[in-house]
Amino acid sequence: MPWQYQHLGAIVLTLGLGPFSLFYIWRSPVISRNAKIAYTGFILLLTWFAIDFFNKVWSSAQAMLAGAQLEGL
Q: Is residue 7 part of a domain?
């Protein structure tokens, strides 16, 4: 069985591809249905936290630069 269809492969793909790893997880004949549901929930939660974190960083950067004027442009 190829590595990307096993449990460790699913974890490695999740770290590299994020939510796009769900494609390989759901096509895996090795991973049980309950494990697929658990992986899906975890990956979606992790994705939500990552998006929220980067949104807060972006908002903070925008707030810090709100008073800055770029002269000469």
A: yes
